[in-house]
Write a structure and sequence with these properties.
It is a single chain. Helix 5 packs across helix 7. By secondary structure, this protein is of the alpha+beta class. The chain is globular and about 80 Å long. The strands form seven sheets. A six-stranded mixed sheet has the order 16-19-15-20-23-24, with helices on one face. It has a five-stranded mixed sheet with strand order 2-1-7-4-5. It contains twelve helices and 24 strands.
């Protein structure tokens, strides 16, 4: 007698009875097919391959390329196909997926090839399409870690060996595609035939792998012009090369060797050098056009508050007096916060900030008055006062940080010439190995969950995933990876060569605190 178990299939909207040991692919056949095939399934909210077998009652939701989980399955599978194609065409060469680019693409390099030609890009794309047409199966097995290590060594996958050596386990999972082995931190599609939309174009020293958009799966964007962003990515690559930690395995090795302190100090030095350059640029703008306010914006958990504090120190070195204000402290009381379509408090809405009070305080500060700044209590959801007034003098630079820092509706009372805008975000991902990475959205999500639980006594309970994936979210307090600056009328590149820093320069005359058109 066959044992029957009852599962919940969210795609069908109810319960389904299946024999014990049924693979997800069989259950998927009961769901009416959509425009795009199912790539994997969330089993009790954990992503699983379609050949995963069910032995206990579970909740199942099949995902395609239009879901967040599904698009990542598509990405990982395309990387594996690309790895095999590179191995087939360029034996002995190592593929590096450096970072994301554009809306859903990735910049890649092949070690040993200094410049990728159009012919090589066309050949690589052709090889991938051949592998897709073959509809080759992708399998996953759990074997002894010693065997996995030996197979990696035979294929020259030293980056994966470093992870195995610093994460000792008796057994490890191994993905195989023909004669190519690999490991990925999440499910893959059942076969190569599921990945039928991609493109490869030469870019810089390597090539650009274009993949479909989650919101428009039939569209590819192969024309990517992001010189400034690309410069930031290249700077990041130079940093990790100098530090000797291009992957997590290398980081683990340094930590185990007792060199974590030196690694951290070097990373801090890189950041301080960058903030010093930004401070120099602000100082010049203060002299040339009377900049009095620095507006810092960025997505949730990108490091706005920490960056504001570090920038303030560097401005102080130049003889300026930084005064920091967080837009968080101007939140309206919680019950007055606007609600989103689901009825939850929308802290991302500009109306969640008391704009009237904020601009009144700005005007008074610019006039040289003493102003008592509020402090928002995230636990009680109330604004509090601490009788610690702020005052600006002729050398003061007001630093305002918050997700709406670049919104012109935030500071209509301040002349544009007096503003200096900075956008900060974790553009760079954390490379687990040469192919797999921790996406920036996941990195920020982890920071946000930790911060909100430890400092604000808030549990997102499933809402954080959606919030962290949006381009901008609620305020944050962590450290940045890279930053870019934008003036009111011109742009300056963070990745440009940094000027030599002289000793603090004190002008004989500072710009007046009251200018025509100011508050």
């Amino acid at each position: 007698m066959t044992n029957i178990i009852e599962i919940i299939c969210e795609n069908l909207g109810g319960k389904v009875e299946v024999p014990m040991g049924t693979p997800l692919s069989e259950v998927a056949k009961r769901v009416a097919p959509g425009p795009y095939p199912f790539l994997a399934a969330l089993v009790n909210n954990r992503i699983k391959e379609l050949y995963y077998k069910i032995y206990t009652p579970v909740s199942v939701r099949f995902v395609d390329i239009t879901s967040f989980s599904g698009i990542r399955v598509y990405q990982r599978t395309s990387w594996f196909i690309l790895q095999k194609a590179v191995r087939d065409l360029f034996p002995g060469k190592t593929l590096h997926i450096r970072h994301s680019m554009g809306q859903n693409g990735f910049y890649c390099e092949v070690e040993g090839i200094d410049e990728f030609s159009h012919e090589q890009a066309a050949a690589l794309e052709g090889r991938m399409r051949y592998l897709v047409a073959q509809d080759l199966p992708i399998s996953r097995m759990k074997i002894l870690t010693s065997e996995v290590r030996a197979r990696y060594a035979a294929q020259g996958l030293t980056d994966k060996i470093a992870l195995l050596d610093t994460r000792p386990r008796l057994y490890s999972d191994l993905y195989t595609l023909g004669d190519t082995d690999g490991y990925f931190y999440g499910a893959l599609a059942p076969s190569t035939g599921f990945i039928d939309r991609f493109g490869i174009e030469p870019y810089y020293n390597g090539f650009y792998l274009a993949l479909p958009l989650r919101t428009a799966p039939d569209r590819l964007n192969t024309n990517v012009e992001q010189e400034k962003m690309f410069g930031i990515f290249q700077e990041y690559q130079s940093w990790v090369r100098i530090m000797g930690v291009p992957t997590v395995g290398a980081v683990n090795s340094k930590v185990l060797a007792g060199d974590a302190g030196g690694m951290i100090k070097l990373a801090e030095a890189f950041h301080e050098r960058k903030f010093a350059w930004v401070a120099d640029t602000i100082y010049d703008a203060n002299i040339s056009r009377g900049v009095r306010m620095v507006l810092i914006s960025g997505p949730s958990s990108s490091g706005k508050t920490t960056s504001a504090k570090r920038l303030g120190i560097q401005l102080g070195v130049l003889g300026l007096h930084p005064v920091l204000i967080s837009l968080d402290d101007y939140f309206v009381d919680r019950e007055k916060t606007p609600r989103d379509a689901d009825g939850n408090y929308d802290y991302e809405a500009l109306e969640a900030i008391d704009l009237g009070l904020f601009n009144d305080h700005l005007c008074r500060l610019m006039r040289g008055e003493s102003v008592d700044i509020p402090r928002y209590d995230f636990i009680t959801g109330r604004r509090t006062w601490h009788n610690a007034p702020l005052t600006l003098d002729e050398r003061s630079i007001l630093i305002v940080e918050g997700i709406h820092g670049l919104n012109p509706r935030l500071t209509p009372s301040v002349p544009e010439a007096q503003k200096f805008r900075i956008y900060i975000s974790c553009f760079t991902s954390v490379a687990m190995d040469n192919l797999s990475r921790i996406a920036t959205t996941d990195n920020r999500l982890l920071r946000r969950l930790t911060r909100d639980y430890t400092r604000r006594r808030r549990s997102h309970a499933g809402r954080a995933c959606g919030a962290a994936r949006r381009s901008t979210s609620s305020p944050t307090r962590k450290t940045p990876t890279s930053c870019s600056t934008r003036r009111s009328s011109t742009k300056s590149r963070c990745c440009a060569p940094m000027p030599k820093r002289s000793s603090a320069r004190f002008p004989t005359r500072y710009p007046s605190t009251t200018r025509r058109g100011a508050c």
